[in-house]
Amino acid sequence: MPPAFRSSLVNLQQINFQDLTNNLAPEEAREPSNALVESIARTGILHPPILREQSGARLEIVTGRRRLIAAQQALHSISAICLVLPTETLPAEALAINLEDTLLRGDITVVEQAIFFQKILAHLDENEAARRFLPALGLEPHRHNLHNLVQLLGLEEHLLGALHTGRLHEGVARELLALNFTDRLSLYEVMEILSLSVGNQKKITATCRELAARHRTSIMALLCRPEAREILAPQETNIPQKTARLMQWLTDQRFPSLAAAEEEFRAFAATLKLPGGVALNHSPSFEQDQVHLSLPFANREELRRVWPVIAKALKQS
Q1: CA separation for the pair 247, 237 (Å, rounded)
Q2: How many domains does the chain have?
Q3: pLDDT digit string (tens) for 68-89?
Q4: What kind and span of H or E run contains 47?
Q5: pTM (two decimals)
Q6: Residue 269 is part of which domain span?
C-alpha cells in the first residue's frame, strides 16, 4: 500500500536540519551544489521534499535536504511545499522511500547504497533487507552483496567522498580497504595529486602492493623515497608529465633488469647519432635481439626517389 502522504506548505523553522537519520550522502556531499542553487533560484523547487512528522510539531527530513537548503540560500525561503508523512510511519519505511526517491534520480552511487544498508539494518534483519532492496539495485538478493556494500564504509570520510563523486574507482577502493591506514592514505594522496585515471589508479595500486611485498616495506615508505617525492613536488612539470614520470619510476623499480636494459639501449642509440625523426626501437621487453629502424618520408614520391639507395644498401649488408 502506498505511503499516506499529504501535501503541505511547511515553515522551514519546523524542520530539524541537523537530523541526518535518513540521509544517504557522505559528509562532503551533504550541501547543495552550485548547480542546484542556481536551478532553484531560476525555477524554485520542482520536486517536493518529503518530511516525516515528529512530536512537538517538528519535522524530520526523509528526502530533499539539499533542495531545502538551496531554497533558503537562493530564495531566502521561509516555507516550502512538501510531502509530509504521518508520525506513525516506520523508520524502515521512511528509509525505503528515500531509496526509491534516490533511485528515481537515476545515478545512485555505491556509497549511497552502502549507507542505506547500514541504516536499514538497524530496523530489518539481513535476509529481509537483502530480499527487499538488493534487486532494486540490480543485485542478487544475497547477503554477501549486502556485506560487500556496507564494507566500503570502512574507508575514511574523504575517500568515501571521492568514491561518491567518481574520483576513486570502486574496485580500487576495495583494494585500498585491504591496506593499513597509512598505506591507504599515502596511496590515495598520490592518486589525488595526479588526478589519476581509473587505469592508472589500478596500475599504481597493483605496482605499489607488489613492490612493498617484495622489499618487505610499506607503501608509505616506498612513496616517501626521495625519487618519488621529487616527482610529486610542486614544480613546472604538468600533471600528465608527473604521472608519466612516476609510472616509469615505479616500472623501473618493479623490473630493474628491464630498466637497466633500457638504459643500455638508449646509450647504444646515442652512439649512432641518428638524425632527427629517425627512431630506433627494440623488441617488447627485449624478448629478441632484433631492432627496428624507422625512417620518416614526407610523401610517397620522396620514398620512391630514395628507395633505390636504401635497396642497394640492404643488398650490400
Answers
A1: 15
A2: 1
A3: 999 999 989 899 999 999 999 9
A4: none
A5: 0.78
A6: 255-316
